[in-house]
Write a structure and sequence with these properties.
Blueprint (H helix, E strand, L loop, with lengths): L5 H13 L5 H10 L6 H8 L3 H13 L3 E4 L2 E4 L1 H9 L24 H11 L16 H13 L7 E5 L5 H8 L4 E6 L2 H14 L3 E5 L16 E4 L5 H13 L7 E6 L6 H13 L2 E12 L10 H5 L12 E9 L24
Parallel strand pairs: 3-4, 3-6, 4-5, 6-7
Antiparallel strand pairs: 1-2, 7-9, 8-9
Bound molecules: spermidine (SPD).
Spermidine binds next to strand 7.
């Protein structure tokens, strides 16, 4: 006999264990994903439940005999199929435009940039755990440039890039559209790499060392037309990366770009972020779902995600994605530029650091 409240009951148990907001709907989403994949990382991709919450849901489903954790895979049991039938849980439907992968922009005028970028990126510094690095596919980096160009945020503009393991600055420089690109980056390897490539290719790109936990230096304050960043996703990191970007902007109607994931940020965290943006008097003009797709980082087995995962198989394809946000400043926007108050890498939802 399957109880009417079984999905909500599972959610409640997981909520208590993880302190992450989890609802019956999240359990449904996991059971939906399981109908098309037995791979944990793909379950995260389809369900859009945070990694620690999804892990606990799956472990609870296993305890209740609804799924079976079997070696490297997760399979639905007979009881699981009964629940799927009873609650009419459909399979996920996920089909993006085959030409633009749902990003909504064309790379037609950026083919040469993409070709050159791919060559350069072959020698890029590898992602390291110390700074929660994990870069996007080369097509995505160049798509970011095409997106900014489509919004007229790049042509003859000054671009500030905060943290750049994605090498967006290089792609922007290769496009020859911005007047100037400045990179503020904590990792000396990346600063040296970007400056070396900039010199070799004669780009208008300059990188310098900067730790996001410190206020934006005076020389970068209120100077740029556009910023782009890809923050770690604790509340403190979101606040710091984005407010530093905003502090770098020179006035109203300047733009900012950043990616926000569901894998490490519940919708409650999205709410925190969106409220923070409105409180700073900036508006969200665009959100593009799964615009950013990340290359699996080499240190996966050392992450919390792997520790909490119900099965220990490494991801076989890209699974970590983020929505691309674009914001614009209004008259009276706030340049919050205080030092860090908390840890920027770890909270209850983070897992890939
Ligand atoms: N720790 C590896 C994954 C890091 C990806 N960072 C980008 C998050 C999106 N804001």
């Amino acid at each position: 006999m399957i109880g009417e409240n079984i999905l909500e009951n599972i959610a409640e148990i997981v909520r208590e264990k993880t302190r992450i907001p989890v609802y019956g709907v999240d359990v449904r989403r996991i059971l939906s994903a399981l109908q098309v994949t037995d791979d944990f990382w793909e379950i995260i991709f389809y369900s859009e439940v945070t990694v620690p919450a999804a892990s606990e849901i799956l472990k609870e489903l296993d305890r209740k005999g609804i799924v079976k954790l079997s070696g490297d895979v997760i399979v639905i049991t007979e009881k699981g199929y009964e629940i799927i039938k009873k609650f009419e849980i459909p399979k996920p439907y996920y089909k993006k435009c085959p030409t633009c992968s749902g990003r909504g922009i064309s790379l037609e005028d950026f083919e040469e940039v993409l070709r050159e970028f791919k060559k350069i990126a072959q020698n890029r510094p590898e992602a390291i755990q110390q700074y929660d690095q994990g870069y996007v596919l080369p097509e995505v980096t160049v798509s970011r440039v095409a997106l900014m160009a489509n919004k007229m945020d790049l042509q003859n503009k000054r671009l500030l890039v905060i943290g750049d393991d994605d090498l967006t600055s290089i792609a922007a420089g290769l496009s020859n559209l911005p007047k100037e690109v400045v990179v503020l980056e904590i990792d000396e390897r990346l600063v040296n790499f970007i400056n070396k490539i900039s010199e070799e290719y004669g780009l208008k790109v300059n990188a310098e060392i900067y730790d996001i936990r410190n206020p934006l230096p005076e020389r970068h304050y209120a100077k740029y037309d556009t910023f782009i960043t890809d923050p770690s996703e604790t509340r403190e990191a979101l606040r710091l990366f984005i407010s530093r970007g905003i502090s770098g902007l020179h006035g109203p109607r300047c733009a900012g770009y950043f990616g926000i994931t569901r894998a490490e940020a519940s919708l409650e965290k999205w709410y925190y972020l969106q409220k923070m943006l409105l409180d700073m008097r900036v508006v969200i003009t665009d959100m593009i779902h799964n615009f950013n797709i990340y290359v699996n980082w080499g240190y996966a087995e050392k992450t919390r995600a792997m520790q909490v995962a119900p099965v220990k198989k490494a991801p076989k394809r890209e699974w970590y994605t983020s929505t691309m946000y674009r914001i614009e400043t209004l008259e009276g926007f706030v340049r919050y530029n205080e030092p860090a108050k908390e840890d920027i890498y770890e909270d209850e939802e983070s897992s890939t650091v």
